[in-house]
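Record type: monomer structure entry
Structure origin: computed from sequence
Chain ID: A
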Amino acid sequence: MIELDGHRWIKEPVGAGMERLWKVDEVLWEGDTPYQHVVIGRTSQGVSLFCDDDRQSTEFSQLVYHEAMMVPAFLLAAQVERVLIIGSSEGVASQMSVAAGATRVDHVDIDELCVRKCAEHLPYGYTPEDVAAAERGDGPIKLHFADGWGFLDQAPPEGYDIVVVDLPDERADDEDGQHNRLYGMEFIQRCQSVLSAGGVVAFQAGCPTVWRNETLIRAYNRFNSAFETVAYFGSDEHEWAFIFGRVEPIDDPTNVLLESFPKSSYRPQTIDEATIIGATVAPYSVRNQG
């Protein structure tokens, strides 16, 4: 947080030698958790969440982001009954999973303080009462304050229909980021190993802009090495892309998304059939590397 022209600003890195300024009109909470520096404040996009200066979600655009991450997974999976969410501190992804028909949602987040502060201050996702109920397992959502890597050892014998990994961006090799290990091939394969038949692994995969697409290219290559079926979804109204993997080969995953769309229990507000057609082609620089 910096002071400039009598206002408080967050400098968000958006690429090599590039930063974006967010004016924070009111700080609702700021502090260090054991894992990151968190700011929740009012911006021009409403109440917004920043972790280590990276914008994670805003009141204005969070639905666009979360639907781009969750809806393709709902449509590509053979069924939506058991869902594992790793990260996604706001709780929106867990709630969407229940709306899509899930009867068991294990939400795993290592940063308990961040989850609690999000529930306290964000006008979307969990409320403090939701967090308390999920800690007790009172309902379909069970909240676990744990490391996602180790939690996979507790997967139910029947597996998960969807595994979602929603974390801050993968850091460069020379940057500190304890969550980087949850982006690597070994962790992707661990997620794959706990899938049920027809299950899907979904990752927040980074930004498709050509000056910030290194993490997307890495995720795209890893998923194509790990899965027989890979689906890309680049939000046409946000700056993030998501990648989905299914073990079984599917000739045309986009067609599966389109066929499943009218049958889905979750009715998105920011995605329709035309969105699916337009959003499932990866950028040229990702498809044609080198």
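Annotation 1: The mean pLDDT is 95.
Annotation 2: Residues 150 and 227 are 22 Å apart (CA to CA).
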